[in-house]
Every structure is written in structure tokens, then in C-alpha cells.
Amino acid sequence: MLQATPLTEGWILRHPDDPAEVLPAEVPGCVHTDLLAAGLIPDPFLGLGEKEVAWVGRREWTYETDLRAASAHERTDLVFDGLDTVAEILLDGRVLGRARNMHRSYRFDVTGLSGRLAVRFASAYAEAEAVRGRLGERPAAYAEPYQYVRKMACSFGWDWGPTLVTAGIWRPVRLEHWSTARIARVRPLVTVDGDTGVVELSVDVERTRGEAPLVLEAAVGGARARGEVDGARGTVRLRVPDAALWWPRGYGEQPLYEVELTLLHGDEALDLWRRRVGFRTVELDTSADAHGTGFTLVVNGERVFARGVNWIPDDVLPSRITRERYRRRLAQAAGAGVDLVRVWGGGIYESEDFYDACDELGLLVWQDFPFACAAYPEEQPLRGEVEAEARENVVRLMPHPSLALWNGNNENLWGFRDWDWERRLAGDSWGEGYYLGLLPRVVAELDPTRPYTAGSPWSGSWHRHPNDPAHGTHHSWEVWNRADYADYRLSVPRFVAEFGWQAPPAYATLRRALPGEELAPDSPGMLHHQKADDGNGKLERGLARHFAVPEGDFDRWHYLTQLNQARAVAAGIEHWRSHWPVCAGTVVWQLNDCWPVTSWAAIDGDGREKPLYHELKRLYADRLLTLRARDGGLELAAVNQSARRWSGTLVLRRMSVQGALLGEASVRLAAGARAVARIGVPGDLVPAGPEEFLVADADRLRALYFPVPDREVPYVPPEFDVALAPGGITVTARTLVRDLLLQADRLDPGARADRGLVTLLPGERVTIGVSGWKTPDAEHARSALYCVEPLR
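The structure assignment produced for this chain is given below.
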């Protein structure tokens, strides 16, 4: 049987400025983590430390260890699951091979060899600049040369991330000892035939002896089958009667079946392959209709409104992301009602741990191929690397039932049309051949069970604008960049794959990241940890449309910008969900951060949940109430994404901000399963001016409608009582208390609140659960409570 020996011990890192100086190295890892462990660089996440480590990405680095490949087996391979990025692999000075792609694995025959193993990394900058010199300039959204090297693009910086250009053995490395033959690749096609689950395993084998007769034996869900190996290939097909279907969360359960494949020579087991699969079908409906061209995911025949988030690498030093961290972050997503995670194209193909968690949690995965915001050359050496990485990763990720969609790129088709690329390229290649040729061919050949789309955004044809909201996927960035978030309500895209609004991270995250700094929106550390072009200007302009921008009061600014982020995202999701099935999904930019930063994330770089995160729980719940102006009046939309009909009583109340009840009515509510009901608000309940608002309640859900922005509402000073409660606090309102928020991390850096923004009418109360609070105290809690206040 094949034996695998991890090669993790005894590694050292040679410092390029003094090759005699050696540092202990952790493998998997990267140069930055080793230098941090040795105390030779400051933490780039703290203060202005990023600037002090910029030199690291410009140097060459060498990892070394002793290799002893002696074995009783016929063959020994040295296997690297990931090398970042441009490397030469040597044994006692003899070249074993070379690497130039972070997104691939590498295998070298080292049978019978021993000696000093060295992995010599060139600077990714040097490689990218050399390729650019050969192939010519290509336009991009950023000045860094990330499109010339097959590496995680956002390690060169982004509008939410630091520039930390890594190098290192970033995924596991091992020795594999084997004889006669080994399983080189398994391509599992998992389909459903009526009530029967079907698994077809297409197997490639590598041999040491070409004549040996080989047999494949496989088992799944009680079914067993055998197949012969003809030369280097074989196939086994299994049928599982009455297979339980895998569903996205909210639609059903997530049963997983373990597939075990054994390669045999006579009675001798040579190699074993084991994975989990799930039985389900997934289609993408892009048919034309009266509204344009749709973009609807269909799972097991059920049409799905995708409640999505965009995912970036959870750490800009990705070797630090553990299985536990993936699970924690994705469990947070599921806890917010998310059912789709888009793995964005400026990052990586994530590890098995990521997709395993999505399989278990019922999170559909939209997987970008790693191309983002740039024109990518299609000539060698890049073209061969792109095809090799695509073939490897398509097959690697195929077993996962959570994987629902392959996407060719992020914003490059749009960039070609709108960002002056076409003129600047003057006929040079830019990636179209990847997105409309190579990648769909690879997916069709290797993974025909899943749909492919050429890009995001993409309207499906060059006959239309790539970002046409009436056709395919749409990215809505004009609102954040130039308009008020109320403008989300001006259109109904078929599928909103990116939109979002910025806010700073949690207060405790800022205090840790900017030690000793007097916090202000424009303090040095705050500006350094704001990477978006004119980010603070857009924050302030967006805030000023709704609130008076506080001067010299950082705590108030911090609360209001976080509130504005939640309000902005709510405006979009409420509107677009109410237009199901014309709009078939929203994918918020973004779920997570890779370091402490002001960004669009719902969960900050320290893993703390912003108010937006808790707002997503409401926005992505199966049932949602939303009020909106329509045709000179008001309309309530009752969005029901559950499998059961929603029947009940809707109570409408017209209120004054002073707390008076001005009118009330009860209306019958009836919304079909997976449907939206629309109810007109009686004219006498429509708020008549800035002092009035409307409240809609049904089944403990609430919607509010204020006819004017907050800066025009004559709020009364909020009054409320705070008392300790088991596991938290209770707040009782004596007046209208608008968007009350407990910033639990101000009580203790380890404290968490179980809810975010809540509006209380006079006499109402709410209990907020607090965990991680060492010394509960009601007055201390009051100091961490914020709400909307009258203009000062």
C-alpha cells in the first residue's frame, strides 16, 4: 500500500541578505510567518507595520531540510501540495524541477535519493516583471503586476487588503512511497437518476511496471463495484438506490456518502482514495423572459433565491488559516442565513477544509477561477499554467456537493468594455480566450455536472453591455461610489453578484490594530487601514445624506458609519428580495476580512461581527417584511422563502416620533411557499410628514418606514432603562429608541452580543445576550449602548 510521510520537520529558512544566517522554518508556512516567529519583522497588521515589511516580497528566499527517500518500495515521490510561487527545487545542488504557480501541486521522482533538499524562491515581483517585459503591458485596476504571475492576486494589495507579497511552502509537503502502481487522479461524476444516486469514477493510474494486471474496487452507500484498468485508465460505476438528496441549508438536509476506491494487484491493495460526496442536481437557468435574461440556480429541481456573500482569503497569509478557522467563519455565515458563498477570483482555490465545511453546513459554493480586475496575457508561460491549474482544481473540487457553479473571472469582461482596456490593449490578448474558450472547455470535459458562466458580471453576450442589470449577473458599485443607497431601489437586476457599503471594524479590533493611537477617522493608522480610493470621503458623503456627520466625536462616527452600512445593505436586499423571481439572488460584498481594516465586510479581520452581520440574519431569514413607496403610496412585501405557506395577521400602526398612536389596522397576510405577497397600505396609515412613521408587525417580524432621512426626523431624546438579565442585559424603552446597538467589545475585548440593531417603541423591551463578559455591570453596559439621537 502507498505510504505517505509528511515532510514537516527540520526545515530552515536562509535569510537572503546573509545566507549564513538561518532561521527555523514552519512548513506549511511562508517567509512572513517565519520572520514574525523569529522577531525579525514587526506585525504588518499593527499600526503602519505593513510599510516596514515591504522589502520581504522583493527578496529571494531558500528553504532547506535533509531528505532521505530510501524505502522498500519501487518508487518514492516528493509531493508539494502548494509552492508560493516561483521556485527551483534542488537536491544537493541538482535541479529536480521548477514551479511557477501557487495554484498547483508538484510531484518529483526522488527514488533512492538522499541529501540536502533546497527550495529556492525567486521574488514574485521579479517573475511578474520579467513576464511583463516579454509579453508587454496589460491594464489593471491596480499598479501592482499581479496579472503576470499565477499567484493570489490580493497578496499584491487590494482596496481592502495590505500588500504582503508572500513566498514559501504554503501547503503540505510529503514523501509518497509506492510499488507497481498508484492512483494518479480520480474524477468522480456524481449524478441522480430518479431515486438512485450514481457515482462514476474515472481513474488514472501511474505504473512502475506496465504489464501488471490491475483492478479497481469501489464502495459507496452499501453499493460495491469493480472495474479493470486498461493501460493507465479505468472506470467504476456505482448505483445507490433510494439515495438521500443533498440540499442547500433551508431546503433540506445535507447527507454525505463516503466513497472508497481501492487499486488492487491481485489481492494486494496498492493505493486507496477516499472522499465524501452528496447526491444532488444543480442547473443554471439563463433563459430569456419578458424582463431580460435570467440567472437562477436550480438545485434538485427547486429554484433558489441565493442569499449570498462574497468570500476573500480569510488571512492575507493564507498558510495560517486552519480547519477550525474555516469552520468558525463559515458557521458564522450559515448563522446569518447565508446559503451561497462566492469564492472571489482575486484569491485562491481554497483548501479541502473550506469545501468540507460548506458540504456539512449546506452552503452552496460559487467558485471563481482566479482572475480579477486585470487584463491577463494568454501567451506562454501563462497559458500552460492556467490550463494545468484549471484541470487540477476542477477535478480536486468535484466531489463536493456544495460546489454549484464555476465562474471564469471577476470583472474582466466588464473592464474590457468600460475601463478603456480595448483601446490600450490595441489587439493584445487580455483573457477573453480563457473565459470564453479554455475554461468552459475544461469544465465541459472534466465536470459536466455543473454549470459554468464566463464572468461576473456578465450579460451572456457581447451584443449587450457586460454589466447590463437586465441580463445575467450584475455588480452594483455606482451606488457606493457616487450615490445614495436609496438608489438601490431604482432597478431590479436579475442577479446581484456584488454590492456593498463600507464601515470600520469593531472598536476592540481598532484598539488592538492601532495601539496607542488617538482614534479619529483621519488619524494616521485609520487612514493606513483604509485602502479604498477616497474611502473616507465616500463614507462621509454617504453618511451626510442621512445623518449629521459628527465632528470630533470618534465614538459617534464609528457607530453611525456601522449603522449606515447595515442600512445600505438592507435597502438593497429588501428591495431585490421583494422582486423574486425576477431577481434571483444577492451576494453581499463581503463576508470577511483578511486583516484589520475599514471595509465592506460583515465580519472584521479579528473575527468580530459588525452590526451588518446581525442585520443579515434578518435580511436573509426565510421570512422578511419590508415597506416601500410605490405608485404614490406604500406597499408591504411579505417575502416567504420557506417551504410552507405563510398565513397570519399583519398589524399596521401609524406612529409619531413622540410615541403617539395615530392609526392602526389589521390586515390578512397570505404568502405562498417560496413566494412574495404584496399588500397595499391603506392611505390613512401612510405617514403624513417627518414626525410620523409606519410600523408593520407579523409573527414577531417587523418592518419600519420613515418617509424622510434621519437628519430630517425630529427625534425626541431617547430614554431607556438598563438592567442585568441572566446571560446579558435587558433594555426597556421609555421613548422611541431607534437602532439601539450594544457594542459588547467595549465591555470586554472577548465579549460578544447575540444581536445587533433593534428599534424599540415606547414601553417595549429587549434582552441582549452577552457572552465573554467577565464582570457584568448595568451602568458599564449603558456606556456601550448607542442609538440614533436628535440633531445637536
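Interim note for the steering committee: The first strand starts at residue 3 and ends at 6. The chain has a mean pLDDT of 97.
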